[in-house]
Amino acid sequence: MCHGQLAQLRDNVKAFQEAGAQLLVVDPHESWSGKRFLKDVGFATGDVGYPLLLDPAQTASAAYGVAMQMRIHTELSNRPASFVIDRQGVVRYERRGKTFADRPTPADLLREVRLLK
Amino acid sequence: MFKAMLEPGSGKIERRRASCRTLRPTHFFSRCWSVVVVLVLAAGVPNVETHAQDDQEAAVRVSKILHDFGRAWNDENWKPNYMRPLDDAGWQQRMTALREIVRQGPAARADLVQALKADAAPVRALAAQALGYCAAAAAQPALAASAEHDADAMVRLYAADSLGMLGGRGFDKLLRRLEAGEKNRDVQRHLRYAQDRQGQALNPAVTAQLQAWKIEQLASAALGKTAPDFELLSIDGRRLRLSDYRGKSAVVLVFVYGDT
């Protein structure tokens, strides 16, 4: 979990809403470790402003092709990825990162949401 | 017999152990896998004979899964790369094998414990990981031995995770000692996380979710196609489905980088 990314997304929740999109963030931790991590990086649980979904079984992550793919810390972890899904539930944008920092900015994502219209 | 099944290709993996140890630790946050203990509570009077037969069948399946996995994870996808290539199918094999083993439940324990001594490091790592999901506390001494003695950092790391996931405080002292002596920073962190659980085992719902998951969903998200649905709990305990938003709102779905 990256504090910078969580904060960046939080700062754009309203912009996403105004563009007609709900932001959902998926993290692969168990709830106890997810909560502790949020606390460690200075967030209260309710602070993030969007549903922070936990996927410790990695089943949602695997469906989106991002589970257990980064070899950092000698282990296998999710790679960062972003998807834009339209109102009909169809995937209209996808980006699966090649490194931990390879991800679209909120502005990139907003542009993709606006393209849906 | 089991060891012999795991022999193919193991020489290559042996050579790679040294490079696995030299993986550069990074300062980015790492987290442990979450793990689960499945308690199978047999209702009524158990039919011992049937159970023994089921266990035997499960053991055969687990041996085969581990064997196939050991062969599939060849030199190419076990490089200590920062990230494996995007077209690499290794993660799918890993996810599939993990899910298949975890579906066997506690019956997989004996074979998994034996596989902790396999020649191939990827097999030992997978066995260590799977034990956290599908074994009972009886697997903890074997995991403790792997966390302490395995030559491969990744195996030690998953063994530490699973030891914690199986719950209880019986290994706190050992975990503390290993943390103090561990040279690999990442493994050291995970030895810390295992203690941070304070005895809390993995929520059995996590194992159940992995067991129930349909493998056809694997990597099924694609441009222009209906997004695979999922139901997850939010960090504040709300149950959300992706399809709840259908017809109401577009969704920006972000998977944050997270090592598990």
Q: What are the SSEs and their pairings?
A:
The complex is a heterodimer of chains A (117) and B (260).
Chain A: H1 3-10, H2 13-18, E1 21-27, H3 31-40, E2 52-54, H4 59-63, E3 70-72, E4 75-78, E5 81-85, E6 91-96, H5 106-115
Chain B: H1 2-5, H2 10-21, H3 48-72, H4 90-103, H5 109-115, H6 121-134, H7 140-149, H8 153-165, H9 172-181, H10 185-196, H11 204-212, E1 231-234, E2 239-241, E3 250-255, E4 258-259
Antiparallel strand pairs in B: 1-2
Helix pairs in contact in B: 3-4, 3-5, 3-6, 4-6, 4-11, 5-6, 6-8, 7-8, 8-10, 9-10
Can you put this structure into words, describing what you see?
The complex is a heterodimer of chains A (117) and B (260). The longest helix of chain A has 10 residues, at 31-40. Chain A is built from five helices and six strands. In chain A, strand 5 (81-85) and strand 6 (91-96) form a beta hairpin. Chain A has one domain (3-115): Glutaredoxin (3-Layer(aba) Sandwich), CATH 3.40.30. With 117 residues, chain A is an alpha+beta fold. Chain B is mainly alpha-helical and 260 residues long. Chain B is 50% helix and 6% strand. Chain B is built from eleven helices and four strands. Chain B has helices at 2-5, 10-21, 48-72, 90-103, 109-115, 121-134, 140-149, 153-165, 172-181, 185-196, 204-212, and strands at residues 231-234, 239-241, 250-255, 258-259. The longest helix of chain B has 25 residues, at 48-72. The chains are: A alpha+beta (117), B mainly alpha (260). The interface between A and B is large, with 83 and 81 residues.
